[in-house]
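seq as requested:
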Amino acid sequence: MLLPWIARAPRGMSIAEARLAGIVPPEGWVAPRRDRVRDAARTAGVLARLLARMAIDARRAVPTGDTTTPAGLAALQRALAASARRLRIIVEVTGAERVPRDGGVVFMWNQTSHLDHLVLPLALPRPFHSLYNNEIRRFPIYGAYIARADHFWIDRTDEAQWRRQIAIAAERVNAGACVLVSPEGTRSWDGRLLPMKRGAFLLARLAERPIVCATIRGARELLPRGRLAVRPGAIAVELSDPIPVRAPAPDLESRVVATFQAALG
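C-alpha cells:
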C-alpha cells in the first residue's frame, strides 16, 4: 500500500500531471520491500555521523567540506569515501579524463536516489557549485550546511528569484567555474528519465559552456524512493564527453537525453 503522501498530487495539479513530473509514482509502480534490520542500523549510523559533521561545519563561515574549493572537495571526498565503505558500497567512476581541466562546465546528472548526493562528489574531478531547491533548503542540518557554502538556491515558486539565481550561476560558469544541476528536478521512481526541466538548459544556454553528463547506475537499486535503508552493492558513474553549447542550441535537450540513454543502455 502506498503512503498517503506518495499518492497525493499538489493542489492545482492532476494525478497525470504529477506522474509526468515525477511527484507521484507511475502507474504499475510497486513499493520496495521492507528494509532489512541490519541495513537500517548501518544506514542510521552513517547518517548520524554525516549529520553530526555537517552540524559542526554549518557553524563555520566556510564549511570544511565545501565542494566549491579544491581543499573542501578533497575533505568531503575523504568523508564520503569512508561513509561508502561503512555502507558497503563500491563506487566505480569512468570517464573522468573526459572532463575539461580548464574553463567552466555544467554538470548534469540523472537523478535516481538520495545516494546520488554521496556518489557525485566522489565522481566529479573538479570543484563545483550546486543548484538546490526548497526541499533541500528545509532539510534539517543539511539545509543549513549547504546554505553556508557558495551554492545557488532555486525557489521554483518564485520565477523572478530562480531566473536571477540561474543568471548568476551562468556568469560563474562563464568565468570558469563548474555548476552541478539536475535537469529532471527530482528522483525517478523506476529508473526511467523524467521530462527535462527548463531551468537546467537555461543555465547552459546562458553560460555557453560545455555540458558533461554524469550518468548514475545502481543507486536506485540500493536506495529507491520509498525506502529508508541502504543495501550494500555497487554504483557506477559514467562521465560523458563534453556536449558543446552555442545558444540558442534548439536540440540541446535531445542531445542530453540521448547521452543519458546511451550510458544507461
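The chain is about 40% helix and 15% strand.
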